[in-house]
């Protein structure tokens, strides 16, 4: 089975899971008593956060392997994961703000969970800016790996921020008392299906972006070989 | 804006951003594939030219 067929299969699995998640979010799951219909944002907001955290953890892992082995493939994987993570981290901040307006009466508040998430977004925004400015240089890749590893320290801080500091952010998955904050089993099922759908979406997008970066790397190598061959042919 | 509108806007943004990003990757991939094909063709042409040049009988021999 070739890579294109694998990506197509992954895309179809993602589509099926996403349709199932949408059905559950809008038809199956009961409306939350306190927050009303706007609470349904949560079923896609939390999976976006999970995917962003997984992406940034992958950036750090790929960065470690790049610094250790010096293989371009790890740099491409880290770059692809950072870009994918940024897309989902942006969605976390935007959907969180849209949920906050009717519930808290404000688009934004300097709450510990929100602030640490914004810091995470800024850190990986810095990573992508560094990579864009450094171009294809080896030094840029090394600096990127270091930034990717250091920035990932913020991921566990975001996760435990609701336990560490006073916060108004709902602690759904990690409550102060332990356990989760979803009272209906249908809510748990919907969240799990949404998490599966976004995990599949993440793997699919990551594969697409990774393949694009590998092609870019191969193109750079070919361009260098071609320039050498053309120079040799002229001599 | 009522709560249903907030819900609609949130989901619309999620799908618009994801669709936009996937479209960006697809277009980038198509452009890179075209560039790769063009470069491989040039490489093959250069190789063929080099082989033909090497196969040419040297003058005076």
Main sheet overview of chain A: none
Unreliable segments of chain B (pLDDT under 50, ≥5 consecutive)?
none
Query: Nearest-angstrom radius of gyration of chain A?
Result: 21 Å
Query: Into which percent range does the helicity of residues of chain A fall?
Result: over 70%
Give the total of domains of chain A.
Answer: 1
Please give the count of helices of chain B.
1
Any low-confidence stretches of chain A, pLDDT <50, length ≥5? none
Q: Ends of chain A: how far apart?
A: 44 Å
> Could you state the order of secondary-structure elements of chain B as H and E?
H
What fraction strand of chain A? under 5%
Please explain how this structure is put together.
- The complex is a heterodimer of chains A (235) and B (61).
- Chain A is an all-alpha fold and 235 residues long.
- In chain A, 79% of the residues lie in helices and 0% in strands.
- Chain A has one domain (41-234).
- In chain A, helix 2 packs antiparallel against helix 3 (72-104).
- With 61 residues, chain B is mostly helical.
- In chain B, 87% of the residues lie in helices and 0% in strands.
- Chain B is built from one helix and no strands.
- Chain B has one helix at residues 3-55.
- The chains are: A mainly alpha (235), B mainly alpha (61).
- Chains A and B meet through helix 2, helix 3 and helix 7 of A and helix 1 of B.
Q: What is the element layout, followed by pairings?
A:
The complex is a heterodimer of chains A (235) and B (61).
Chain A: H1 3-28, H2 42-69, H3 72-104, H4 112-134, H5 138-151, H6 154-164, H7 185-234
Helix pairs in contact in A: 1-7, 2-3, 2-5, 2-7, 3-4, 3-5, 3-7, 4-5, 4-6
Chain B: H1 3-55
Kindly list the characteristics that best describe this protein.
heterodimer, A: 235 residues, B: 61 residues, mainly alpha, 1 helix
